[in-house]
Specification:
- The complex is a heterodimer of chains A (about 400) and B (about 425).
- Chain A is α+β, with helices and mostly antiparallel strands.
- In chain A, about 40% of the residues lie in helices and about 25% in strands.
- In chain A, the strands form five sheets. In chain A, strands 2, 3, 4, 5, 6, 7, 8 and 9 form an eight-stranded mixed beta sheet that branches. Chain A has a four-stranded antiparallel beta sheet with strand order 1-12-13-14. Chain A has a three-stranded antiparallel beta sheet with strand order 11-10-15.
- In chain A, a hairpin with a 5-residue loop joins strand 2 (about 15) and strand 3 (about 20-30).
- The two termini of chain A are about 60 Å apart.
- Chain B has one domain (about 20-415): Up-down Bundle (Amino acid/polyamine transporter I), CATH 1.20.1740.10.
- Chain B has helices at about 1-15, 20-25, 30-45, 50-75, 75-115, 125-140, 145-155, 160-165, 170-180, 190-205, 205-220, 225-255, 265-275, 280-310, 325-345, 350-375, 380, 390-415.
- In chain B, helix 5 (about 75-115) runs parallel beside helix 15, helix 11 packs across helix 14 (about 280-310) and helix 13 (about 265-275) runs antiparallel to helix 14 (about 280-310).
- The longest helix of chain B is centred in the first third of the chain and has 41 residues, at about 75-115.
- The chains are: A alpha+beta (about 400), B mainly alpha (about 425).
Chain lengths: ~400, ~425
């Protein structure tokens, strides 16, 4: 078992069973449909056309390649876009390092060659993104190979194991064929996904948002810089955009749609489910810089006669954001807001306790309160959530502390 | 509300893309550019004004390609060269870009030094202070705040237009020689030809291609906004050309008309203008030189650090901490510290530094332009936005002429 670099293999002379030089390695192909890491064949340029040489027909692969078969038995190479070409698709290109959570450029690819019976198995094991790969390629053919090997051993490697590599491919049909699903990326925290996506060129951003799960996409989109948000949503087709926007917090969705050109936001709204569309449309009608423009309509409100158990049941059924569950609001006659119970009290009280006994005086503001006054209320009363009420004292939405922090950061 | 919103959207669309093209074209009128235009006016009067139109066209064509590439691919020029031409080509090009831009940075700080020497302020005070300002602007600003500073600096080029007016030129003669074909007799004069070459050579510098494309990408301009972005490039180039025209005219109307041909730099020109065009023209000219030099000195180090790091796949960006992107910060800081430091060497030949920077630009330019043309005609990459046939003819002709002129300039300068 030994490691061999892609840059060593590329351009290596290929000898057949008789020991005669028949050509040079031009490319190395992996067929992800068959096996995620195994090399399917080497593409060898010979005087009479290109041949596909599977590792099963190889005796050794390194600075020179030796086949176990005669050159006349090598198959002709037929181009296919269902295979990953390591030089074209990987070398010098950007990839997502899922482990290090950033976008990096590939300097070299490391393959592991394992002798099995009398032939080889070649597997992609990692990509080199450090100085070692770069120096190897820069000095190839200039520095003698044994000096180079000795030199390279002194350089600490910076490699990313293949399972932490997410490839960037902008062609949707090729993504399917190459089984690129951004599974690694999708497991990261939405804020990390957002950082990575912000570092990508627009077409690659679009590719990610076309592919990953809608819920993950929505959470990540909320964390992305507003200008980039707009350009991503504009580039997606309207069905996909609607699917993602539906999953977003209504207030974030309204902010986003408010930034889009009107015909575009109209198209997306039309594709959304009626319930989500209604909420977002309501929010869109309020001024952006008022309490109503900042609020979300997804909150927990229970009848003032309920007990702790009812509140817990409401919590279980709640699908809104985690920030919104910090306070449970109490509603009395005529849907009027009558009190608020912090989540902590629910957690520390017996299940039969009356919520009205746990209730604290609530802080509320009107829908048209300017956003700086909203921030002042949060500061003065040390709030986690703030109720927004209409002219009849009915609860129309809540503002959460994370929205206020975002708002303050943007206004400075 | 609807009306307001659609108006806002439209205004935002235009404002959203103005900047990169305008800034890049103006930075082109840096210390070296001002020197060349001044000398051209002093030595040959109005007779070189015809070069302004072809030079502007060449500038627009080259800049338009870079900004289109940025908008379509969303990637910087060094990224694209790396992805399409591999590590070795990129490494050599980045090495050359680094060395060339270092010379340019030295030349800009030399411009800062010489503009303040006019006011009797020592370079040992001005240059370190300027270096500090340059370092601070970029490290502590966001892209949009830095852009505002740069746009204001661009506006300050109006100083040259005013000093051109104060020089009371012969407007009719100046206008006529801008649009009439040059007399063929002039081309038998060696000095005249080398001045034509110098004017063309100072117009398009390699770093501009990298800077413009990177700022288009950083600004997030996409294909959809491309029309507005092209307008930004064209307007920027026109403004830069008008400024250059006024510099030539100012020197032609004063220095050339009394037979004072022997100036060598922008500072010389300002000095010589004083008794001829008055105190204000002198002050504006000197202040313009300082502004232009400081402006270019602010852009070059950061643009170099970005291009080199992105091409070589090193971590880059001002949003990263020092230990996350050490190469980036070392490059950036090193270019400023050494660029300014070299100028502080006692009896440092300021003028020779400017000439050296133009020679370095000339050597690198052909390579960069050929890469740009190859990339912009790559169908897969440009996705339907490659050059049209006639545009290709015009741009290869432009690039060919630029390359020929630059080579001629190099020969002339190594001989002279």
């Amino acid at each position: 078992m030994s490691l061999v670099a892609l840059s060593e293999l590329l351009g290596a002379t290929v000898r057949d069973a008789t020991g005669t030089v028949r050509g040079r390695v031009r490319e190395i192909a992996v067929a992800p449909q068959d096996h995620p890491t195994r090399v399917a064949y080497l593409i060898v340029r010979t005087p009479d056309g290109e041949r596909a040489l599977p590792p099963g027909a190889l005796q050794s692969a390194g600075a020179s390649v030796r086949a176990t078969t005669d050159a006349s038995q090598w198959d002709r190479y037929a181009p296919s876009d269902g295979v990953l070409l390591l030089k074209r698709d990987l070398l010098d290109q950007q990839i997502i390092d899922v482990h290090g959570r950033k976008v990096v450029r590939v300097n070299d690819v490391e393959l592991e060659s394992t002798p099995v019976n009398s032939h080889l198995l070649l597997n992609v094991v990692s990509v080199d993104v450090g100085a070692r790969g770069a120096i190897r390629r820069l000095s190839k053919g200039i520095v003698p190979s044994f000096t180079l090997r000795a030199l390279l051993e002194r350089i600490p490697p910076r490699v990313i194991p293949w399972e932490y590599v997410d490839l960037l491919e902008t062609d949707p049909s090729r993504r399917v064929k190459l089984k690129i699903a951004y599974e690694g990326l999708a497991k990261l925290h939405p804020a990390d996904i957002a950082d990575i996506v912000e570092d990508l060129p627009p077409a690659e951003r679009e590719a990610v948002f076309e592919t990953i799960d809608e819920e993950v996409a929505a959470e990540a989109l909320e964390e992305i810089d507003p200008d980039i948000q707009v350009s991503i949503v504009e580039s997606l087709d309207k069905d996909r955009a609607a699917d993602i926007v539906e999953e977003m917090d209504p207030d974030a969705a309204a902010d986003l749609l408010g930034e889009l050109p009107e015909d575009r936001s109209g198209e997306i709204l039309k594709e959304m489910e009626p319930a989500e569309r209604r909420e977002v449309t309501q929010l869109l009608e309020f001024g952006e810089h008022t309490a109503a423009g900042r609020m979300t309509t997804e909150f927990i409100a229970v009848d003032e006669t309920s007990v702790v158990d009812d509140a817990i049941e409401a919590l279980r059924r709640f699908e809104g954001s985690r920030e919104a569950v910090a306070t449970i609001y109490l509603i009395g006659a005529g849907n009027k807001l009558t009190g608020s119970v912090p989540l902590v009290k629910i957690a520390t009280s017996s299940s039969a306790a009356q919520l009205s006994d746990l209730s604290e005086p609530y802080v509320a503001c009107a829908a048209d309160t300017p956003q700086d006054e909203v921030a002042a209320l949060f500061d003065k009363y040390n709030l986690i959530t703030l109720a927004v009420v209409d002219e009849h004292g009915r609860l129309s939405g809540i503002i959460t502390a994370d929205d206020v922090i975002a708002m303050l950061r943007h206004s400075h | 509300m609807t009306l307001l919103r659609s108006w806002r959207t439209r205004a935002a669309l235009v404002l959203a893309v103005v900047g990169p093209g305008f800034i890049t074209a103006n930075v082109d009128n840096d210390a070296g550019g001002i020197a060349t235009y001044s000398v051209a006016g002093a030595q040959f009067g109005y007779s070189l004004l015809w070069t302004m139109i072809p030079i502007t066209i060449a500038l627009v064509i080259v800049q338009e390609m870079s900004s289109r590439m940025g908008a379509v691919t969303g990637k910087g020029l060094s990224d694209l060269i790396r992805e399409e031409f591999g590590l070795r080509a990129t490494f050599l090009l980045m090495l050359a870009l680094f060395v060339t831009n270092f010379f340019n940075i030295v030349a800009e700080f030399a411009g800062v030094a010489s503009s303040f020497e006019l006011f009797g302020v020592s370079k040992y005070i001005v240059v370190p202070l300027s270096a500090l300002v340059v370092w601070g602007i970029v490290v502590h600003g966001t892209y949009s705040s830095v852009e505002k500073v740069f746009l204001s600096a661009s506006a300050f080029y109006v100083a040259y237009i005013v000093s051109g007016v104060l020089a009371h030129p012969d407007w009719r003669a100046a206008a006529l020689s801008t649009v009439t074909r040059p007399e063929s007799a002039g081309f038998r004069n060696y000095g005249y030809v080398s001045m034509v070459i110098g004017l063309a050579g100072t117009t398009i510098a390699p770093w501009m291609q990298f800077y413009l494309q990177a700022s288009i990408v950083e600004k997030g301009v996409t294909v959809r906004q491309y029309r507005a972005s092209r307008l930004d490039v064209i307007v920027g180039c026109l403004f830069a050309a008008v400024v250059a025209w006024f510099i030539v005219v100012a020197c032609a109307a004063t220095l050339h008309s009394i037979g004072k041909y022997d100036i060598e730099s922008g500072a010389d020109a300002a000095q010589a203008l004083r008794p001829l065009a008055g105190e204000y023209a002198y002050l504006l000219f000197a202040a313009g030189l300082f502004n232009a030099s400081l402006f270019a000195a602010s852009i070059l180090p950061i643009s170099t650090a970005y291009a080199v790091c992105e091409g070589l796949g090193l971590e880059s960006g001002l949003d990263k901490r020092f230990d996350e992107a050490p190469a980036f910060y070392w490059l950036y800081t090193g270019l400023i510290v050494f660029g300014a430091g070299v100028v502080l060497v006692p009896r440092f030949p300021l003028l020779r530094a400017m000439v050296a920077s133009q020679v370095a630009n000339g050597v690198l330019l052909p390579f960069v332009l050929v890469f740009v043309l190859l990339l912009i005609n790559d169908r897969e990459l440009m996705n339907g936005h490659t050059n049209t046939r006639w545009y290709n003819i015009v741009s290869w002709f432009t690039v060919g002429t630029m390359i020929a002129l630059t080579i001629a300039m190099l020969i002339a300068q190594t001989r002279g």
